[in-house]
Amino acid sequence: MITTILFDLDGTLLPMDEDAFIKTYMGGLAKTMAPFGYDPQKLIQTVWAGTKAMVENDGTKTNEQVFWDVYTQVYGQDKRTDEQIFAKFYQSGFALAKSACGFNPKVPPLMEKLKQLGLRIIIATNPFFPQTATNQRIRWAGLNPDDFAMYTTYENSRFCKPNIAYYQDILQKFHLDASECIMVGNDVLEDMIAQELGIKGFLVTDQLINKHNLPWEHIPHGDVYDLQLFLQDNLENW
Q1: What is the C-alpha to C-alpha distance for residues 27 and 179, in angstroms, rounded to an integer?
Q2: pLDDT for 158-199, tens place per residue?
Q3: What is the number of domains present in the chain?
Q4: Torsion of CA 211, 194, 97, 88, to 10 degrees
Q5: Cβ–Cβ under 8 Å, residues 187 and 204
Q6: I need a labelling partner for 192 at 20 to 30 A (CA). Which of 49, 160, 168, 218 fits?
Q7: Is 56 exposed, middle or buried (0-12, 13-18, 19+ CB in 10 A)?
Q8: What are phi and psi of 124, to 5 degrees?
Q9: How far apart are CA 6 and CA 8, in angstroms?
């Protein structure tokens, strides 16, 4: 019996021009930090280095701790106090990145239906961002963060996709068996790797990502309408 559905966010529930999003996000962050003595190019390189470290996180620290370890290695422990400036950026300046995102009107009604069915819904987005940034992206998709059992952020996560431990960690937190879960995403590797644990998968192909040219046609797939049909077939009480 399916009790839990995990949803990727960017490119799945939230349409996104990834290149434009990164350019707007990084540009906004660099512009915010420049008056405080940060060279834009060095700062962006540091953010990418911190992201790489989070992807390689072995679980001994949170992603947040891993990111700031990289930051202090570059800028020194004294500059850690500037975390408050970063926080203010994510509370306000980050909103500029919404311009790189679209809106799928089919998503909110589907989420409402799943909520009415009493399913546990988890936003399984790669936890590179702080809670406030993820909260905003959920709202850009027309959804309420409070409706989800969890949404992964760099504060509450110790792994990243495609590390299978990312999914194992979610299963353990909610005492779930893989067979009672479905993972919905648009990345053939990062999202569908959950199938290795026995989690059912559905691949949203509107903005398909397959950087490693992996076979995917055998995986249930399609747009949000096809997803709804898939869920109707796999949920007992639709």
Answers
A1: 42
A2: 999 999 999 999 999 999 999 999 999 999 999 999 999 999
A3: 2
A4: -130
A5: no
A6: 49
A7: exposed
A8: -100, 70
A9: 7
Question: For the chain, what is the radius of gyration of the CA atoms?
Answer: 18
Give pTM, 2 decimals: 0.96
Q: Are residues 53 and 107 in the same domain?
A: no
Closest listed residue to residue 2, CA positions, set 183, 125, 147:
183
Q: How many CB atoms lie within 10 A of CB 187?
A: 24
Same domain, 89 and 110: no
Q: What is the DSSP string of the chain?
A: ---EEEE--BTTTB-B-HHHHHHHHHHHHHHHHGGGT--HHHHHHHHHHHHHHHHT--SSS-HHHHHHHHHHHHH-GGGGGGHHHHHHHHHTGGGGGGGGB---TTHHHHHHHHHHTT-EEEE---S-S-HHHHHHHHHHTT--GGGSSEE--TTT-S--TT-HHHHHHHHHHTT--GGGEEEEESBTTTTGGGGGGT-EEEEE-TT-B-TT----TTS-EE-HHHHHHHHHHH-TT-
Q: For residue range 15-64, what is the model confidence (pLDDT) as tens digits?
A: 999 999 999 999 999 999 999 999 999 999 999 999 999 999 999 999 99
Residue 175 structure tokens: 């005492």
- ∠ at Cα 88 (14, 54), nearest 5°? 60
| Backbone angles phi and psi of 97, in degrees to 5 | -70, -15
